[in-house]
Amino acid sequence: MKTNLKKRHVHFFIEDGCLVRTVTADAGDGRAYTHRCAKDIFETVAWAMEELPREGDGTTLMHIAKREALPFTQVNVALEFLKERGIVDVRHRRCYPATQSVHLDAMVEFHALAEESKPT
What we know:
Layout: E1 8-15, E2 18-25, E3 32-38, H1 39-50, H2 61-68, H3 72-84, E4 88-91, E5 94-97, H4 102-117
Antiparallel strand pairs: 1-2, 2-3, 4-5
Helix pairs in contact: 1-3, 1-4, 2-3
């Protein structure tokens, strides 16, 4: 029976205008998965995070997906990217804005990653 990928490598890149997250097992057993997030959904998640106060109850992946009527997996990809880039903080399993302008910072990181992802 396969277990979760506890030790793993996560890689983000932009492909066909979508944010792509690839997770590969560290064990070298070939297990991997890839999920995508469309740019418009990424922006919606960024706006949803920006609307939150920096203090208070925060939000969750499920809450954003349900409130915005977005696919769970795409919201997860967006939030994981925002967490990795320091734009969203997690405290007690809840997400909080980590910057003054979440949407602006998110789009800067998205476009910077798109430039890195271009073939040379």
